[in-house]
Design goal:
By secondary structure, the chain is of the alpha/beta class. The protein has 3 domains: about 5-85, Arc Repressor Mutant, subunit A (Orthogonal Bundle); about 90-200 and about 385-395, 2-Layer Sandwich (Nucleotidyltransferase, domain 5); about 215-375, 2-Layer Sandwich (Nucleotidyltransferase, domain 5). The protein has helices at about 10, 20-35, 40-45, 50-60, 125-140, 180-185, 195-205, 210-215, 270, 275-285, 295-305, 310-335, 350-360, 380-395; strands at about 35-40, 65-70, 80-85, 90-95, 100-105, 115-120, 150-155, 155-160, 165-170, 175, 190-195, 215-220, 225-230, 235, 335-340, 370-375. The strands form 4 sheets. The chain has a 5-stranded mixed beta sheet, with helices on both faces. A hairpin with a 3-residue loop joins strand 4 and strand 5. Helix 5 (about 125-140) runs parallel beside helix 6 (about 180-185), helix 7 crosses helix 14 (about 380-395) and helix 11 (about 295-305) packs across helix 12 (about 310-335). It is globular, with a radius of gyration of 23 Å. It starts with 8 loop residues before the first helix and ends with a helix. It binds zinc ion. Zinc ion binds near residues 249, 260, 262, 264 and 267.
């Protein structure tokens, strides 16, 4: 049961179009999850009137959200026309800023990337604003007939209500108003969020089917730092002014191999991020001339999967700290699942057992156990995250 907050009651009173809006959202959800599907099947499964479904489908086709894909098998009467989400039509521009690279991508309503461009991220905030705006504007002009919106994922704290990036620790930028700058230039709607929150949203809408059914889970992004996104009751929990989920800074031990972006050596990020992994490897092979320490995370994972002793050791050690952090999250939230994303997922077979062992130890007798699994979002989860900021809004607000 949700408490009714009196100062908000006005906006909670159902407006006449609310029921139709909800029905529209339900129909769109059926088309998204069960395509190819006919109007009759939707009516049967939702118990909506056949005429209501037809009217809603007309609206959704008019909005360019769904399309007909030919004729299905007949179950007696007339052969039904099948429906699916309209693909290939650009509806979102995703801006994915990571500490090293920034990617700008054009995507359709199914989340497929149609075009993208990547450039190095610069610590010069004005230069970066210019670079991002220039590219976003180009895509916007090329697709001005489409109802395009923009989603921005940043490695820092972003306040969705003001559209401002409050702080990016890597570059020590504060109050970056990139969303307003883009809107001023393009007149397009911009949604901005922290990278881990954007990934959590992507898991909820575009991850494995099982994620989409879960209402409470935590997404853990292991990258240059560690970010966590909390899905609570089917939506992202952002906390006051977007500052929730900063578990990268929870204390999991002392004397980490690297400093956290906040400067401490006790944080989870300092013990279990890619930064920590790479430095652990360099420390391991310090006295061995035969090994090249200047390698990428992907190369290190490849070495470990080929059985290299030092590389394997690095992942086992890191898995221990990942497991400690995840077990703390499970104890605090009792989620249905914890979903890990980032390049480290490629080394899942090497780290899975250690993480599960530590997490299991922390679960008290008789309490529900959370499933820990690798993300299905692939190698660019933050890019999918930025696109999801737009798509989730389009699906969730089809009224
Ligand atoms: Zn920290």
């Amino acid at each position: 049961m949700k408490r009714i907050y009196l100062h908000k009651a006005k906006s909670q009173i159902a407006r006449p179009n609310t029921i139709r809006g909800i029905n529209k959202q339900i129909v769109l959800a059926y088309v998204r999850d069960r395509a190819p599907i006919s109007r009759a099947e939707i009516a049967r499964e939702t118990a909506l009137q056949r005429s209501t479904v037809s009217a809603i489908v007309d609206d959704l086709q008019f909005d360019g959200l769904i399309e007909e894909i030919g004729i299905g098998d007949s179950t007696g009467g007339r052969k039904p026309t099948l429906l699916r989400i309209k693909a290939g039509n650009p509806v979102a521009i995703g801006v994915d800023m990571t500490p090293r690279h920034t990617t700008i991508a054009l995507a359709d309503l199914t989340g497929r990337v149609l075009q993208k461009e990547t450039f190095p991220t610069s610590p010069d905030v004005d230069y970066m604003s210019g670079q991002i705006i220039e590219r976003v504007e180009k895509y916007a002009i090329e697709n001005e007939k489409n109802n395009i919106e923009i989603g921005i994922s940043v490695p820092g704290v972003a306040d969705q209500t003001t559209g401002k990036v409050r702080y990016i620790p890597y570059f020590q930028w504060s109050n970056w108003d990139i969303a307003r700058q883009i809107t001023d230039k393009t007149n397009l709607r911009v949604t901005i969020d922290n990278d881990a929150n954007a990934i959590a949203l992507a898991e909820l809408w575009f991850g494995e089917e099982i994620n989409r059914k879960e209402k409470n889970f935590i997404s853990v992004l292991v990258a240059e730092g560690i970010g966590t996104g909390i899905i609570f009751d089917g939506q992202v929990y952002r906390g006051e002014r977007g500052a929730a989920g900063e578990f990268g800074h929870m204390i999991v031990g002392e004397n980490a191999p690297v400093q956290c972006s906040c400067g401490s050596r006790n944080c989870w990020e300092a013990h279990a991020s890619e930064k920590a992994i790479m430095l652990r490897f360099q420390n391991q092979i310090k006295n061995r001339q035969s090994k090249n320490s200047d390698i990428t995370m992907e190369q290190l994972i490849k070495l470990a999967s080929e059985g290299d002793k030092e590389a394997t050791e690095v992942f086992k050690e890191t898995a221990k700290f990942l497991g400690i952090g995840i077990s703390n999250l499970i104890m605090g939230f009792s989620p249905q699942a914890v979903v890990v994303s980032g390049t480290i997922v490629r080394a899942w077979d090497l780290i899975k057992d250690e993480i599960e062992y530590l997490a299991e130890r922390s679960v008290r007798q008789g309490l529900p156990q959370a499933v820990i699994r690798a993300s299905s979002l692939g190698d660019c989860p933050t890019l999918i995250g930025s696109i999801s900021l737009v798509l989730a809004r389009k699906f969730a607000s089809a009224n």
